[in-house]
Amino acid sequence: MIRYATPDDVPAILRLIRELADYERALHEVKATEAQLADRLFGDDPKVFAHVAEHDNQVVGFALWFLTFSTWNGTHGIYLEDLFVEPEYRGHGYGKKLLTELTRVADAEGYERVEWAVLNWNEPAIGFYESLGARPQAEWTTYRLTGDALTKAARS
């Protein structure tokens, strides 16, 4: 079953975020707390959204996303920040169902794209995404300001 996340799902979502970070060799970088997630997902003015995949009433996967905007198209889109299914539940269609649900949200709302980033070495994810018809945007390079560089830029 795929559904929108509820406040009761926050502990499971954080657990899955940590599992994803561990898989991506970056568990030490996770700083998010349950309180932060609860506030961002379910506070007065949420800007982040999540769907979960359930198996026997247990959350086994999630998709966390937010809106983007295309100045060229004049429409919103969905940026998929994280998609993760516990390893023992992969191959059962949960990842595909989560991504399909986001495409349904986009279609129903008139959003013209669903996009995300994937680590270059994550061949299983790349194969999965390409099997659904997704294609890499090779002409674009992602840049990021964070940490000290962000602070320095903000104070310049």
3D structure, described in words:
- There is one protein chain.
- The protein has 156 residues and is of the alpha+beta class.
- The protein has a single domain, classed as 3-Layer(aba) Sandwich (Aminopeptidase), CATH 3.40.630.
- It is 36% helix and 24% strand.
- It contains 5 helices and 5 strands, in the order E-H-H-E-E-E-H-E-H-H.
- The chain has helices at residues 10-23, 34-42, 94-109, 123-131, 147-154; strands at residues 2-4, 49-55, 58-70, 75-85, 114-116.
- It has a 5-stranded mixed β-sheet, with helices on both faces.
- The longest helix has 16 residues, at 94-109.
- It is globular.
- The protein starts with a strand and ends with a helix.
- The model has no long low-confidence stretch (mean pLDDT 95).
Q: Which terms would index this structure?
A:
Aminopeptidase; alpha+beta; 156 residues; five-stranded mixed sheet; globular
Number of domains: 1
Q: Largest sheet, order of strands side by side? A: 1-2-3-4-5
- What's the total number of strands? 5
**Topology order in helix (H) and strand (E) letters:** EHHEEEHEHH
Report strand %. Answer: 15-25%
Number of helices: 5
CATH class assignment: Alpha Beta
Rounded to the nearest angstrom, the radius of gyration is 16 Å
Overall mean confidence score, pLDDT: 95
Identify the overall geometry. globular
**CATH H-level superfamily title:** Gcn5-related N-acetyltransferase (GNAT)
Please give the largest β-sheet: 5 strands, mixed
What would the CATH topology be? Aminopeptidase
Structural class: alpha+beta
Q: Quote the distance from N terminus to C terminus.
A: 49 Å
Under the CATH scheme, the architecture is: 3-Layer(aba) Sandwich
Poorly predicted sequence stretches spanning 5 or more consecutive residues: none
